[in-house]
Design goal:
Layout: H1 2-42, H2 46-55, E1 59-65, E2 71-73, H3 82-98, E3 104-108, E4 115-121, E5 125-131, H4 132-138, H5 143-151, H6 157-178, E6 196-198, E7 201-204, E8 209-212, E9 215-218, H7 221-231, E10 238-239, H8 240-247, H9 256-270, E11 281-283, E12 287-289
Antiparallel strand pairs: 1-2, 1-5, 3-4, 4-5, 6-7, 7-8, 8-9, 10-12, 11-12
Length: 293
Amino acid sequence: MLKALLLAAIVLAGAAAQADELLTNAEVQLRSLGEAIADAAGSGDPASVRFRISASPIVEAAAVWDASGQLMYPDPDSLPHLIDAAALRALPAFDALRISADPATWEASDASGETLRYCLARPDHVCLLANRTALADMIGATPDALTAALFEPQTRPWRLAIPFVLALAALAAFPLARRGILRRSASHPTDDPDAFTIGDLNVSPRRLSGRRPGLEIDLTARDIRLLRCLADRPGDVLSKNALYDSGWGRDFMPNSRALDQHILTLRRKLDPDRSRPTLIETVHGHGYRAPTT
């Protein structure tokens, strides 16, 4: 029973971590697009906004308000451009959603969830109509996994179940500990023969975890593959293609944004308070490397 409860807690926690990673990657992607579109609208040139929308495979329409709530783009009183038509139709829904943006908020815009509304406050407001499949492709996820990450965290019962399962596991372990059956495995875990280090980070592939002084880190299998690739060649600059082959496999069609966003998320895990030595260095125009010391 104890093993079953612990296994359930590990599975639930792993699913939650994966969903959080997808949410972070999607947020970074749309925040970047939204800020660029808002800046273009602030210049007063509608053509610049339309260019950014048409150049993005993700954004289908956009609307921008200034900090006082005045609509800057699109102009409902001018002759509508083809690119503006979808935004004009979505204005009532955008206007209602942007009020709850703190700093950002999401919702599905149709029953299938194929298009998403995303609003960002910065302090002006920008709302995007985004294509779910294109966004999922950009961050290396499936559309269904992205939908679950965006809209289910607040209602997903297993998130609330994690502490309950852990409590049951603790209760089940107590009588076993009294009889001397429970080992002190938590304090003295079995060595992982596949473990490796990169800088001051100790990585355990079997436990999907890493440890730095004062920090325990949950890692995904892709995190570990990328870290292993860097750790095997400290000081060498690894190209993005090499890291794609390691993290995603040779059949994956490379997209520089997917790798860059994953590295950004991984850096946050490895140093959430930005107080530790850098483990993944960017070599602009070439790729990434691990420091030699």
